[in-house]
Design brief:
Layout (H helix, E strand, L loop, with lengths): L8 E4 L12 E3 L15 E3 L1 E3 L2 E3 L2 E5 L3 E3 L10 E5 L2 E4 L11 E3 L4 E7 L6 E7 L4 E3 L5 E4 L2
Parallel strand pairs: 3-7, 6-12
Antiparallel strand pairs: 1-14, 2-13, 4-5, 7-10, 8-9, 8-11, 11-12
Length: about 140
């Protein structure tokens, strides 16, 4: 029997101690469903504010173009040290992104800044349109 497209969903994610797991990413996959292609190229931004990545965790769909604007008043050099997606952006300081990276495959990108060692960020690339990120209470909602 063919699978129907998923509608709204709600989930609550907790850790082993039963506490809310903020920034956890959940994706739903049907065994016999191929999601429709996106009508337009999806876009997302991983900004830098107050010398940190904003958002700390950014989930996006495969083929999303990810921009890396810099809203700080100092320079950053964003890089990914993930095996499946390595890149390094040159030092830059402005809100206009110097480069774009297209996401491919279901994978985590692990991000850092060559200038500020404490800056860490994560981008999860989902191979389904049905995904979400937990808020501070561990709740994930997807509205249709």
């Amino acid at each position: 029997m063919p699978c129907q497209a998923a509608g709204a969903f709600e989930a609550r994610v907790t850790d082993a101690a039963g506490l809310p797991a903020a920034d956890a990413v959940l994706s739903l996959h049907a065994l016999d469903f191929t999601p429709p292609a996106a009508a337009d190229t999806p876009r997302a931004s991983m900004d830098q504010r107050r010398r940190r990545f904003d958002l700390h965790v950014l989930p996006v769909r495969v083929d999303t173009v990810v921009n890396f604007p810099n809203s700080d008043d100092i320079r950053h050099s964003v890089y990914s040290y993930s095996e499946r997606k390595r890149f390094k952006l040159p030092l830059y300081k402005d809100t206009r992104p110097p480069s774009q990276c297209r996401s491919t495959g279901r994978v985590w990108w692990l991000l850092g800044c060559n200038i500020h060692d404490w800056m860490l960020g994560y981008i999860y690339i989902a191979d389904t349109p049905y995904f979400g990120k937990a808020d501070a209470q561990g709740a994930i909602w997807r509205r249709r």
